[in-house]
Structure formats: structure tokens, C-alpha cells
Amino acid sequence: IYGMFIAIVLPGAKKNKNIAIVAGIAIALSLLFYYVPFFSFISGGFAAIISAIIAAIAGAGLLPLSDEEETANA
To answer: What is the model's pTM?
Structure first.
């Protein structure tokens, strides 16, 4: 199942570096939840959800689309 998610993200990340940055943020957060003992009470599924949500919010706030990208994606 992880391969399916990689197959979804990888083509977009090749075209747009912002997608790769957001995916990297999500990976870093996921590793943080896994290796930091303070977060041991959070299950793996919730850690993945929280990581994805925080990475998406960070990407939307730090890497906004330009007007040209918005019209191209519409």
C-alpha cells in the first residue's frame, strides 16, 4: 500500500518542487513521531494523519501558488 501512495506523490513531486518539499515535511514529522519518546502515546495511523495535515498546512502557508500556477491548475 505504501507503494501506491509513492506512485501518487512521485510524479507530482518531479514536476513541482513544492510538492517534494511538503512530502519531505510530512516525512520529517512522521520520523519525529516515531523516534521521539514523548510522542509514543500516538498510534502510527494518527501520526501519519497528523503529519500529513501539518505538512499540508505548512505548505499552504509557506509555499503559496503564484497566479500563473493557480490558473494552470484550474
So the answer is: 0.77
